[in-house]
Amino acid sequence: MERYDLAIIGGGPSGHAAAMRAIDLGMRVILVERDRIGGTGIYNGALASKTLWEMAVRVSSTNELMRKRGREPLKLEWDEVHRTLQEAMFERKYLYACHMQLLAERRNDRGEALFTYERGEARLAGPHGVEIARAGNTRMVEAANIIIATGSRPRISGELPMDGVNVLTSDQVFDLEAAPESIVIVGAGVIGCEFATIFSNLGRTRVHIIDRAARILPFEDDDVSELVSREMERRGVIIHHNAKLERLTVLDDGPPGGRVAYELSYPDGRRETLHVSKALLSIGRLANTDRIGLELAGVDMDDRGQPILKGTATSVAHIHMVGDATGGNMLVNLGESEGRHAVEVLAGLRNDEPDHANMSTIMFLDPEVAGVGLNEQECRTRGIPYRMARIDYSCLARAIAMRRTRGFFKVLVTDDDAMRVIGMRAVGEHASSAIQAVALMIRKGMPVSDLAELLHPHPSITEGIQECARMLVGTSIFKPEVLGDKLRCTRWAPAVKAA
């Protein structure tokens, strides 16, 4: 039986990152993937959806300019969209494949391969055993340590007719052979809103989105949610607020382009039935931790049948879970970080748990939304006093030059003399590229005065962040008391209850 220092089940971003960190530390590693290397990170997740988003935003920007010039809008054919998507996925897959093939040729001092990639279905067969099945053949390997990185799958509802043709999951939507004439998206979370943005910006699909809450993205501040909603509706997206999906049916004899019927109810008692050509179910994802033999390895499970974790470690100290398999925040950057962290714990280099505090995030909407640290809503819920400065994109030279002035920067600091940065939200062009310096400041507990004194390039979007910092220290170029519709500088503290 072959023996390894580390066996990793799952070749998505977190499993791959874990393998690469283990190689750094001189471990003999076997990485097993049942389907395609790169997993959801390439094929039906981050890379695929963001490739579609990039194309859609460019089409939308071009068409805004065309309309202003009185010209016919650009209509990108779906086969062009699909071809670009396939090219992007192939490039990333090819990079992974070449990298791993070259790594597999390396040997340690005993002539053993440091890295082995195996295609097959892997299951635990005891605390240290891993069974790998492929094409009817099964073999067993033994590993001192094991990392489970089996990813996730879309959550589905047994009450809906999930046929993969008319009613799709967020994985199946990438297999569309043509742009739908219309689509209803069930779920107004990040994934649902991203797909609403993609389809509406491509300009060939009438988009409906069902939101059970009063506003989309309820975890964000009102000004973020309202701007995103307004821009969606400006592009023709129909948002059903405070709506409950009562019924969704695929019709055999529906009208052309309207084979899916869905019925909604509202708190005031109203009901309505609408017809669309496709439905997309976007109600979250489930960890792929069933059917991998956790019980055979003695891993403790909770009442819901999920493994009990402390950080990434299971109850069996040498078995860890990372990425989507943990059932937590399902993001590529977190999964990669967890994979690397787990390897270092197993190698005895550390004994702490992954720290996801002040995590930078981005939502690929139009405009895009990026954030780090606390927002106003969270501060008020927790009773944390703060000062806030906000500047509209229409005040930024770079945004004016790009003709993309819808958006804003918002910086939050502590309500004391130090004014340490505790949060930021960016809504608009280049939002994701503008946020990381502030993330570092939050991590280091730096005062906003350091940000105010930096010399930013001109013209750049990040000048807006600097102007927020200057507003907070009282040295801004534009004065909020004069341009109150475009700049704001406020403070908030919990009300003191009378004795």
What do these coordinates show?
The protein has 499 residues and is an alpha/beta fold. The protein folds into 3 domains: 172 residues, FAD/NAD(P)-binding domain, CATH 3.50.50; 117 residues, 3-Layer(bba) Sandwich (FAD/NAD(P)-binding domain); 122 residues, Enolase-like, domain 1 (2-Layer Sandwich), CATH 3.30.390.30. Helices cover 29% and strands 25% of the residues. Strands 1, 2, 3, 4, 5, 6 and 17 form a 7-stranded mixed β-sheet that branches. It has a 6-stranded antiparallel β-sheet with strand order 18-19-22-21-20-23, sandwiched between helices. A 5-stranded parallel β-sheet has the order 8-15-9-10-11. Helix 1 links the parallel strand 1 and strand 2.
Layout of helices and strands:
Elements: E1 2-9, H1 13-24, E2 29-33, H2 39-42, H3 46-68, H4 78-104, E3 115-119, E4 121-124, E5 129-134, E6 137-148, E7 152-154, E8 167-169, E9 182-186, H5 190-202, E10 206-210, H6 222-234, E11 238-240, E12 244-250, E13 260-265, E14 271-276, E15 278-281, E16 285-287, E17 319-321, H7 332-346, E18 361-363, E19 369-373, H8 376-382, E20 386-392, H9 397-402, E21 408-414, E22 421-427, H10 436-444, H11 448-453, H12 463-473, E23 487-492
Parallel strand pairs: 1-2, 1-6, 2-3, 6-17, 8-15, 9-10, 9-15, 10-11
Antiparallel strand pairs: 4-5, 5-6, 7-16, 12-13, 13-14, 18-19, 19-22, 20-21, 20-23, 21-22
Helix pairs in contact: 1-7, 3-4, 3-5
